[in-house]
Structure formats: structure tokens, C-alpha cells
Amino acid sequence: MAPINANDIVEKNCLVTQKVLPEIGSDCNGNEKTGYSYETLVETANFLLSRISEKPNIGIICGSGMGSYWKEGSLAESITDGVRIPYEDIPNFPISTVEGHHGQLVFGHIEGVSVVAMQGRFHYYEGYPLWKCCLPVRVMKLLGVKILIATNAAGGLNPNYKIGDLMIVRDHINMMGFAGNNPLHGPNDERFGPRFPPMNKAYNYEFRKIAKEVAKELNIDHIVREGVYTCLGGPNFETVAELNMLKMVGVDAVGMSTVHEVITARHCDIKVFGLSLITNECITNYDQDAEANHEEVLDVGRMRQEMLRKYVSCLVKKFSQADPDAP
Ligand SMILES: O=P(O)(O)O[C@H]1O[C@H](CO)[C@@H](O)[C@H]1O
Ligand code: HPA
Asked: Which of 51, 127, 299, 325 has a CA positioned 20 to 30 A from the CA of residue 233?
């Protein structure tokens, strides 16, 4: 029998990979894939459009404990006329691997507004490159989404924040981007957006104003804050020294998502509202016994489920009325 040649195996695997995953682009070494082509994502969008009767205006990313699971009373469950499509059935989609992330798209209506919700998102720590974590945002754009509501669970670093508070995201610090890890890394397709997109208005001012007004109307303004979010790569929670550094540079809440989704959305001109549920207090000294854990994150999500459903539902209605582009 002829000896196995490692090159043959690599070449064969490459061919198979290329066939199944038509990724495009490469880094300067010519070997890192940096995205799916526009045409590939159009195929994905067309598949989804063939399954629904109305295009969504608003996209919602349900983070850990923010409706990412299917439970009575959750935001995703409240979607009426729901068409649910598991990620594994969607061409070119990754699959969710995180506990508490259901892994499906839900199309339907909230307060009469046509929406698509991601029940579960993709994270860098799951092994997906950032462009793949954000692929659903580009698909949303191709489906007609004008507004993205990106929710997440986050650790509260601001000492005034309490567990169960909500933080309207005013801005973010792209920590992973400082090291060159960016969802827009690689060749740019102008059909999505410009090579150098601005980010100084990442989180829509009008939506933040509306969100504060709605919080007052619902009598929850005492728990609604506004602050700066950052995303680290995870999956480990942060060290005390890391958290103290983040505090010094003005971070109010820490998570492992959202930032790259928001960059991708702004690149293709989707307006963004960001909302963090503070699920735990970040531990910034060495005397505390407590340790951060994912169970607490999910528990606090369950505790706030009903309130979040009400709040986000109201926001969907108000944002859609406020957006002059929305039909
Ligand atoms: O950002 P979301 O998906 O809401 O979840 C947050 O909670 C998980 C950690 O408990 C991490 O995935 C972190 O990013
Ligand atoms: O404390 C945290 N750190 C990072 N990600 C998180 N997601 C929820 N809580 C946290």
C-alpha cells in the first residue's frame, strides 16, 4: 500500500472545505478566510425569504438569558405568527453551542411590527471567527432589516450597578479590535458598506432617548442605566487585574459578544440599539469569595424575563414608529 501523504490529506480536506463553505478573502499570508461572498449570503437570505411571507423590519439578537432560550414568557415566545427555523436548517449558518442559546431564527410580529429574532448568537469563544459570528447580521440586512436590537448579559463593572439592572449601551470599546481582530478584517465588499466605516454614532441617539422615556413610562427607570460595554474573547471570566484595568478606561459592563455585531450592522447601515442585562457584579478585589459563573447569568435572565419582554416589546413599537425609513 502506498504511504499516506500528509499533503494529499490537507489538499483533499481543503477541497472539501471549499466546496461546503464558500468563504472568500484571505489575510496577507493568503490562508485565512475572512468571510462569505455577497452572493452566498444572498442564497441564505433567499432561502429564508422562501419560508416567510413578510420581510422583517427589526432584527433582535437575544443574548444569554435575554430570550435566547424558549421559555414561557420570554421575548422570543411572545412573537406572534412565529415561523421558527433552526440554525442547522439554514444554508451557510453556524450552529449555537452555548448552554441557554436555543439556536433558531424566529420570524413574526411584536406589537404588530415585523421582526426576526435570533434565539441564541455566535461567540468567538465557540471557535467561530468574528466574521462568522456576525454573518446573521449581514443576512438580516439582505432580508430588509433596518434596525438591530442587540441584547446581552454582562458583568457590571460600574460600582453603582446592581444585579438585574439594565444598561442602555451608549458606546463600546472594541478591545479585540485593538489587537486587529475585527469582523470587517479582509477584503471589503462595497455592496455591504464602505472600507472605513465611522463608529462615533454606533448606538443610535434617538433610540437611546426613546429607551429612557419608555423606561419612565414602565416605571423601571430606577434600574435602567446607560454606559459603555466592552467585549472580551472569553470563554473565561476576567481576572481582578483585568477588570480593574477595564474600569480605569471607562468600561461599565463586560461581556463576550455584541461589539462585532454592532460594527457589522453599522457597516451595512443598520441602525443599532444595544441593551445589557447586568447578571453579575464584576469582582474587582482579591478578598471576595464569590466567583463568576454562567448559571448565575442564566438565573438572572430568567428572573428578568417578564420585564425584558415588556420593555423590548415597547421599544420595538416605538423604534419602528420613530424610524422614518420603516414601512
Ligand atoms: O453576550 P451573551 O451572549 O448575552 O452572553 C454572555 O454570557 C455568557 C457568559 O455567561 C457569555 O456568552 C457572555 O457573552
Ligand atoms: O462578568 C462577565 N464577564 C464577561 N462576560 C459576561 N457575561 C455575563 N457576565 C459576564
From this structure: 299
Distance in Å, CA 258 to ligand 1 centroid: 9
For the chain, list the domains and their CATH numbers: 24-322 (3.40.50.1580)
Ligand showing the shortest atom-to-Cα distance for residue 256: 1
Q: Give the Cα-Cα-Cα angle 246, 128, 197 (nearest 5 degrees).
A: 65
Three-state DSSP at 278 gives strand
Predicted TM-score (pTM) of this structure: 0.91
Whole-angstrom Cα distance, residue 141 to residue 146?
A: 7
Kindly report the length of the chain. Answer: 327
Give the number of the atom of ligand 1 that is nearest the alpha carbon of residue 294. Answer: 10
**What residues act catalytically?**
64, 101, 123, 125-126, 153, 256-257, 280, 294
CA 231 to ligand 1 center in whole angstroms: 10
pLDDT, tens digit, 9 for 90 and up, residues 40-79: 999 999 999 999 999 999 999 999 877 766 566 788 888 9
Rounded CA-CA distance 123/116 in Å is 19
The one-letter amino acid code at 148 reads: L
Report the C-alpha gap between 140 and 145 in whole angstroms.
Answer: 5
